[in-house]
Design a protein that fits this description.
Helix content is 61%, strand content 7%. It has a two-stranded parallel ribbon with strand order 1-6. A two-stranded antiparallel sheet has the order 2-3. Strands 4-5 form a two-stranded antiparallel ribbon. The longest helix has 23 residues. The protein is mainly alpha-helical and 407 residues long.
């Protein structure tokens, strides 16, 4: 195991003001887009991943894999060459075994505490002099570096954690327990540090809560289905229901999750047509943006900041918006100038698509002089269209692109 390079004296003061935690605290959620990330997320820690770790250790714990070893170790069936290339960034035909193991442990579904223990167990067998159950500074450094490098290769994140910063946090681990760098950290100490220190806790939580776009869409679809059942039950075979009937449904209110009376009243008013009735199409056109907002509102406070709005727009557009566009979009629909977007502001903008959302789009377009950066994030066939146009396509379900109508 190589000894880590201490950071220079010029780097340390910067790190003290911008530790890893500050970067991840402002990152609302990791959205998984790579096939390998989605595949790993579908695996179970106890059922799938831990047996792989134990077998790898029993077989001698090779420090790297070639393509065949990667395929057989992780039972990769589809797209093995592409998944291998995600890790093989230097294209030398071999990938770091620790990086791959850390990705499988951190992204798999399972208890976070068990994941932390498994991360430690991956390295503790290398302890010297029979001192099982502890790791030295070099081992801790490689462990943390493997976690950071692995997930940064597989996941789309807006931050980069440099090796000097990893050293800083490894040092903080040993300093917490007043342990010299030639000493050892126990499993309990490491686990406590991960779950008590804000920086590692935020980093681990970020990937524990990571989701793929299909996962978020599936959550929304499930709520849409339950709400459709509520409408059918209240309508009793009719095409319309009254606002009073809907307001009297306890299941309808329950599915709106922590909504206020004012919010419920506003939603029902948006659903109600000129004749005072609520039809199925209008019912769903109001609730769909509400449900997507809810899926992106991690803390359930009913407000989204710019980072959470980035996720919301990403879900709608199926492409990652630029930070500049997100900022302009938030400013365009933030009616009370609070700096955040609440559920009613968002739903109003979507429902009033011929007024509110297009006005927001116009304001955002006026403020944004160039969308070149945004367009580089979009498929080539959409380069002539702004991110707002793509959003309108998703919400209106019908838009002209390159002379063709698409649903």
């Amino acid at each position: 195991l190589r000894s880590p390079r201490p950071p220079s004296s010029l780097v340390v003061p910067f790190l003290l003001h911008s530790p890893m935690g500050n970067k991840v605290f402002c990152h609302a959620r990791v959205i998984l887009t790579e096939d390998i990330a989605l595949n790993v997320k579908s695996s179970n820690l106890v059922r799938d991943v831990i047996p792989i770790v134990y077998k790898w250790r029993a077989d001698g714990a090779e420090l790297s894999f070639d393509l065949h070893e990667f395929k057989t170790t992780f039972d990769v069936v589809k797209g093995v060459e592409h998944q291998f290339s995600v890790f093989d960034t230097d294209a030398n035909g071999r990938i770091d075994a620790h990086e791959v193991m850390m990705v499988y442990i951190l992204l798999s579904s399972g208890d976070l505490g068990k994941k932390i223990e498994t991360v430690f167990e991956t390295f503790e067998f290398q302890a010297h002099d029979g001192d099982v159950g502890s790791i030295n500074f070099d081992e801790a450094m490689i462990m943390l570096e493997s976690c950071v490098r692995g997930v940064q290769k597989v996941c789309t994140v807006d931050f980069h954690i440099a090796e000097d910063e990893v050293y800083f946090h490894c040092k903080s681990l040993f300093d917490k327990y007043k342990t010299n760098h030639d000493g050892r950290i126990t499993r309990k100490e490491f686990c406590d540090w991960c779950q008590e220190d804000p920086s590692p806790k935020a980093f681990l939580s970020l990937f524990q809560l990571a989701q793929g776009l299909p996962d978020i869409n599936a959550m929304v679809q499930q709520v849409n289905l339950r709400q459709s059942q509520v409408f059918q039950m209240e309508a009793q075979g009719q095409l319309f229901i009254t606002p009073k009937e809907l307001m009297g449904s306890e299941e309808f209110r329950r599915l709106l999750r922590k909504s206020s009376d004012w919010e419920v009243d506003t939603l029902v008013r948006l659903m109600t047509d000129e004749s005072g009735r609520i039809g199925s199409d209008r019912f769903h056109s109001v609730l769909r943006p509400w449900n997507i907002f809810d899926a992106c509102d991690l803390n359930g406070d009913g407000d989204l900041d710019s980072k959470e709005m980035e996720i919301l727009l990403w879900v709608h557009m199926r492409v990652k918006p630029t930070q500049e566009f997100v900022r302009e979009f938030v400013q365009a629909i933030d009616g009370d100038n609070s700096g955040t977007v609440d559920r009613i502001e968002w739903v109003n903008a979507i429902v009033k698509s011929h007024g509110g959302i297009e006005e927001a789009a116009l304001k955002a377009s006026e403020r944004t002089k160039s969308m070149n950066t945004s367009r580089r994030s979009l498929p080539a066939s959409m380069h002539r269209h702004s991110a707002v146009e793509v959003l309108l396509a998703r919400e209106g379900h019908l838009v002209a692109l390159d002379g063709h109508l698409v649903h």
